[in-house]
Amino acid sequence: MVSHAPGELGDAEIVAASLRSPEAFGELFRRHAPRLHSYVRRRLGPVLADDLVSESFATAFRQRERFDGRRDFGAWLWGIAANLIARHHRHETRMYRAFARTGVDPAEDGVAERAGDRAAAAALGPALAKALASLNAQDREAVLMLAWAEMSYGEIAAALDLPLGTVKAKIHRARTKLRKALPQEDGDG
Question: What DSSP designation does 82 have?
Answer without folding.
Answer: H
